[in-house]
Design goal:
Radius of gyration: 25 Å
CATH superfamily of the largest domain: Glycosidases
Strand order of the largest sheet: 22-23-24-25-28-29-39-35-36
Structural class: alpha/beta
Mean pLDDT: 91
Distance between the termini: 26 Å
Number of domains: 3
Largest sheet: 9 strands, antiparallel
Helix content: 25-40%
Oligomer: single chain
CATH class of the largest domain: Alpha Beta
CATH topology of the largest domain: TIM Barrel
């Protein structure tokens, strides 16, 4: 390297994913030089540390008025609608050691510390999925709110508000304020049935919904003097968690709840007869995808989902709530069309490698391919279900443990969410814990160094907008005939991969949208192929078929012809390469590589040894796969920054965990204390040669664990050598490089 820019030669430890593939028989993970326990004794980010992302200029939540949708279809504050805001949050279970178990004398301090800890990890949003259990914990009869829990949640939500954390309360989750454990278990077991009945507007489910709205939104919090319905800290109200999974599993409904299934069929038959001069549909059940009645059935699915939103919204308005409303929809064309015609804010859930069945126990299975090698399918599917004229929220997402490629998440999801200008990302779940819960689990963030590193990186990519938004828009316009004929299928995965290249959105010409579209498209495509949707009790995925390869290639040629992609753009679907129209993002599926190169962040998923040039970072040697990143945390360009964080994200397992030889099926999820794999990497960083730098290995809470020696070479470069297997404080994904003062 020449001129005024010097480099830093870095040798740091990363994850050896390939080591998993070498296992020929099921083995038990135990601590050794390859697998070491990170220091997880204190999980809360320390104020002022390099990992501290807390802001105070936007607090309290609601200071700028309600969250609204602006004219461009993005979230904004009512007092400044021309501006646009993004949220990064968490979804689902919040730490029970705080809301449930903290002693009364300690609770207020615990609540305030918890809210501050969320902000220090960059979170300004909480999706309150579980209120119908949390408020009723310890009650004496069904439907009762426990006064102690009510007071605790009032205090906790007030603490969130003071910290600038916005809320998305979910009216119905799993428990319906049930009394005891067995009653809650039964409600959970029957959840799919209740969701189908909610769509049909059965009175029992509507009564449960009205009751939840009253209990959650109309109560005046004595610590804010506001009911949630009137509190501008409430960004969005969500009606029901994942109701679409009920419609996706009607075969189970037929088997487990024959009366409710008969009611569903009756409603289908009544709907059909009303549109066909009283003529009943053929058959006794519901039509299959090849039936002549499939187009009508697709319209029926669209109607009942759209009407469920309208009913729920009417109930919310009757209660006095005037803010934004959303409901989670599935991935079939009928589902997406219903969202198009009913929602002002789109909410989507997205999981890669979700284990099943029973992800929380041994015996479940999860696939062992990576997201980079399969074209970031979870992200692309979600992007293909967004609309250009309104905000896109991801109410739940994650890349599940024990998939070996978990380190890919920030680059296969967070970076592209910023590129597509999503509005909200909510990881599931529990990014903050009062104390370490012990072992790693499928979705738990707080004690998983890989997910903690990924969320830190995603914050800079998404919230700090290191990744540019695509300047173009490709609209996939789905004609009514196509939508009706393929209503129970989804857009083909090959077509939605265009989300890796340009802005993309779905549209349904002829179907009235919930919001008028104002953004013009640079290219309009009409789909030719579809894909099946496969659902379990906890997740839904679109199958990759390969049938749309020609369709995708033709689309890329048209994108070049209209000037969306210039001559230098390397996108080649046949070779598995997709480069963004901004030039900042590149996915090379055969190499399992995602590259992000921006002025303030450079990162890559690396699955092979050999040189890899980014921008100011060049990887000279990587012995084993991992995610490597360099972030200018002071917001300056990397070459001018005086404080940077390097991330070398690896993979976790648990002490004593056992899997089948292919690592697909869990035999034992292991014991407390996650283990982090070690390895080695050499990288060259082009930093400002006028500055002197000191490097530190950081604990997961941002504390400096140990100084990493730096040696200046005669040519001005700095050499940093680290072996994560022998760091005094144990392995870590975080390293701080800071200017000496």
């Amino acid at each position: 390297m020449t001129g005024k820019t010097a480099g830093v030669l870095v040798s740091l430890g990363v994850f050896a994913a390939a080591a998993f593939a070498a296992a020929e028989v099921p083995g038990e993970f135990t601590p050794d030089d390859r697998w070491r326990a990170p220091d997880l004794t204190d999980l809360a980010i320390k104020p002022g540390s390099a990992l501290d992302l807390r802001r105070t200029d936007d607090a309290p939540a609601g200071k700028f008025g309600r969250v609204v949708v602006n004219a461009r279809g993005r979230l904004a504050f009512a007092s400044a609608p021309e501006g646009e805001i993004r949220f990064m949050g968490c979804s689902g279970a919040l730490d029970p050691a705080v809301w449930r178990d903290a002693p009364d004398a300690e609770f207020q301090g615990a609540a305030e510390s918890y809210a501050a800890a969320l902000r220090r990890q960059g979170y300004n949003y909480v999706r309150l999925h579980g209120f119908d259990e949390w408020l009723a914990w310890g009650n004496s009869r069904d439907g009762e709110i426990t006064p102690r829990m009510r007071d605790r949640w009032d205090r906790l939500l007030a603490a969130f508000k003071r910290e600038g954390i916005y809320l998305q309360p979910v009216m119905l989750s799993f428990s319906f304020f049930a009394h005891h454990t067995e009653a809650r278990k039964q409600v959970f077991a029957d959840r799919e049935m209740h969701k189908v009945m909610f769509y049909l507007g059965r009175e029992r489910e509507l009564t449960l919904f009205r009751d939840a709205v009253g209990k959650i939104l109309n109560h005046v919090n004595p610590y804010t003097d506001l009911a949630l319905k009137d509190d501008p800290a409430v960004a969005v109200v969500e009606t029901y968690n994942e109701p679409y999974l009920g419609l996706a599993r009607l075969a189970s409904l037929r088997k487990e709840h024959p009366e409710e299934y008969a009611f569903f069929v009756q409603r289908w038959r009544e709907w059909y007869a009303a549109r066909h001069d009283g003529k009943a549909p053929a058959g006794d059940g519901i039509p299959g995808p090849r039936s002549p009645l499939a187009p009508d059935y697709a319209d029926f699915l669209l109607d009942i989902q759209r009407e469920s939103v309208r009913r729920a919204t009417a109930i919310l308005r009757e209660a006095g709530y005037r803010g934004l409303v959303t409901q989670n929809f599935g991935h079939r064309l009928a589902d997406t069309a219903a969202a198009w015609s009913a929602l002002e804010v789109v909410d989507n859930h997205a999981y890669f490698a979700h284990p099943s069945p029973g992800w929380w126990r041994a015996g479940a299975s999860t696939p062992q391919h990576g997201a980079a090698a399969t074209f970031a399918p979870t992200f692309c599917r979600a992007a293909g279900e967004r609309f250009a004229d309104r905000p896109m929220q991801i109410g739940e997402f994650n890349h599940a443990w024990w998939n070996r490629w978990q380190y890919e998440l920030p680059l296969t999801f967070g970076a592209y969410a910023a590129f597509q200008d999503f509005s909200t990302l909510c990881v599931h779940s529990q990014p903050v814990l009062r104390r370490s819960s012990g072992r790693a689990s499928c979705f738990l963030v707080a004690n998983n160094p890989v997910l903690r590193a990924g969320e830190f990186l995603s914050y800079h990519l998404f919230i700090r907008r290191a990744v540019k938004v695509s300047p173009h828009l490709v609209t996939v316009a789905i004609p009514a005939e196509f939508r009706r004929r393929h209503g129970t299928r989804a857009l083909n995965a090959e077509l939605t991969r265009l989300a890796l290249v340009s802005g993309i959105a779905a549209a349904f010409p002829g179907l009235r949208p919930a919001r008028p579209a104002e953004r013009r498209s640079d290219l309009v495509l009409t789909p030719e192929t579809t894909a099946a949707v496969r659902s379990s009790r906890a997740d839904s995925q679109v199958a990759a078929t390969g049938a749309g390869a020609d369709e995708a290639a033709a689309a890329v040629r048209r994108m070049r012809a209209v000037g969306i992609l210039n001559a230098e753009n390397r996108t080649d679907p046949a070779s598995g390469i997709y480069e963004s129209d901004t030039g900042e993002l590149l996915l090379d599926a055969p190499k399992k590589l995602v590259k992000v190169v921006t002025p303030t962040v450079e990162a890559a998923t690396v699955a092979a040894d050999g040189p890899l040039a980014l921008g100011r970072m060049t990887l000279r040697r990587v012995t084993t796969p991992g995610c490597v990143a360099l972030i200018a945390v002071d917001g300056r360009p990397i070459g001018e920054s005086g404080r940077l964080v390097a991330i070398y994200s690896t993979c976790v397992t648990n002490r004593g965990a056992r899997f089948t030889a292919d690592r697909v099926k869990s035999l034992d999820l292991g014991k407390a204390v996650p283990l982090l794999e070690t390895g080695s990497i050499e990288a060259e960083l082009a930093l400002d040669p006028r500055r002197g730098f000191t490097a530190y290995a950081l604990k997961i809470n941002g504390e400096r664990a140990s100084e990493v020696p730096l040696r200046r070479r005669p040519d001005g470069r700095l050499t940093l050598a680290v072996d994560t297997a022998h760091l005094p404080g144990g392995p870590t994904p975080f390293f701080e490089i800071v200017e000496r003062r």
